[in-house]
Amino acid sequence: MAVALARAENTFRVFMISLVAVLVTVAVTLNLLLWWMFIRPVTRMSALADRISLGADDAPDFVARSRDEIGSLAESLSRMRRSLAQAMKMLDE
Question: Which of 27, 39, 49, 92 sees the fewest Cβ atoms within 10 Å?
Answer without folding.
Answer: 92
